[in-house]
Amino acid sequence: MMLRLIIILLGLLCLPVRAGGALLWHDNGELNRAGQTLTQLLLPEASEFAVLSIEEKDRWLTREWRQVLSRRQQFFQLPLAAEWSLAGFDRARANGELAGYMARQVPAYPGYQKLKQHYLALDKARSYTRLPPGPEVRPGERDRAIPALRQRLVELGYRLPKPRGRADALDRNLSEVLIKVQQAHDLQDNGWLNDETRAILGRTPAMARGEIRQNLRRWLLLPPEPAARYLLVNIPAYRLTLYNGRQPDLSMKVIVGRPDWPTPELATKINALKVNPDWTPTDNIVREDLLPAQRRDRGFLTRNGFSAVVPQGEGWVKVNPAHADLGQQGVRLVQAPGPGNALGRLKFEMPNRFDVYLHDTPDKSLFGQTGRALSHGCIRLAEPERLAESLGWRVPEYKQTRILPANGDLPVYLVYFTTWVNGEDRLVFSPDIYRKNAGV
User: Fold this and answer.
1) How many CB atoms lie within 10 A of CB 153?
2) Which site from 57, 138, 333, 435 is most exposed, i.e. has the minimal number of CB atoms within 10 Å?
3) What is the DSSP secondary-structure string of 2-19?
4) What's the CA gap between 211 and 99, in Å, rounded?
5) Is the pLDDT of residue 312 over 80?
């Protein structure tokens, strides 16, 4: 009897360890419909995934998907529909409806679908010409890298006429193609072969696939089904796009947070427009930017329209900031509305725990720069009036501060996409300004 019990116990110990009992994503040793869909969403590295046992693959898929849903819940600053949250997954799992649930999780955005097509095509890419290192090459100059540059551009789908002279010269036609590459990637469009252009053209297919894989994962933070109308701010691209249905309706340059003050990834909504806003800078902006400027120049804050608001009795009183103890607890700085106000004339209100928003700026010259990670985390708009008009606001020349409610809630997604597909169906890469592409 004892021997039989020992044999039974040993048999139980040798059974495969399964997460939560039965496998979720496999049937009869193969991926089931839900597992196939999930694998296409998560895109595990094939060589690493292949060495795992069925049970390990199943556990990996479950763990990774739960991480995606956890990140999605952190991404959303407003209540998240149960279908898109961990609760929706747990319910589908309990009800045995994972196949239908996973089918509804596939992003229906053209940007995601086109990027996925390029990812799959790169798996079959066999041609890759490496650019040899070398100095900066300007139009008219010769360099040993030029023949390889021509071949690399052809591999990327650019049409090149034959060289007008020597094959190792950067002639005018080749320079014009480089200008197109630079413009697409928001680089200085001088038509030179420089370090920035080499970095864009020098990605191997494996490097490109790795970066695309990370960006496809970032698309999973958004609701799978696009709203009828929404705003998407791509932080590394320094660009805002308003979508109507699945087509872009408006696009403009933006300024985003500095690397030491990054703009957060989040989902929220625009619920009001503040005309002629005042500005109350956060404590860290006061401490790190405004106070040092005031110490260098005692008239800086007053000249730029700031008042100090100090507690007095049960209320508040405004005083000259030069006469206030700005380090005292409870003392705040407020910049009055006006031409020099840091928020400009328009501020688009959107609830979020980071206290970031979209706004105008008096310093329009900064939009002429290529790298525009310059703010304290908020999004500065190149054309705020156009956005307000596109969202249905008609803004009279108010002299005072006014808050205009939105006509419905417009979803806003601040995303971190370092690669995407442009209107010419070409892959575009941007600098990884916040160093988030680990391992690529």
Assistant:
1) 19
2) 435
3) HHHHHHHHHHHHTSPP-T
4) 28
5) no
Three-state secondary-structure class, residue 402: strand
364: its two tokens: 């329009």
Does residue 144 contact residue 203 with C-beta atoms inside 8 Å?
no
Average of per-residue pLDDT across 16-20? 41
Q: Do 174 and 358 contact (CB within 8 A), yes or no?
A: no
Cα–Cα distances (Å) from 111 to 14, 115, 219, in that order, read: 47, 6, 9
Which two structure tokens, joined as six digits, stand for 14? 């040798």
In one-letter notation, the amino acid at residue 177 is V
**Beta strands 358-359 and 379-381, pairing class:** parallel
Percent of the chain as helix, strand, coil, to the nearest 5: 35, 20, 45
Tell me which residue of 342, 355, 431, 375 sits closest to 256, measured CA to CA.
375
Structure tokens at 300: 């800086």
Query: 């509305």: which residue's tokens?
Result: 337
Tell me, what DSSP letter sits at residue 375? Answer: E
Does residue 275 contact residue 392 with C-beta atoms inside 8 Å?
Answer: no
181 or 283, higher pLDDT: 181
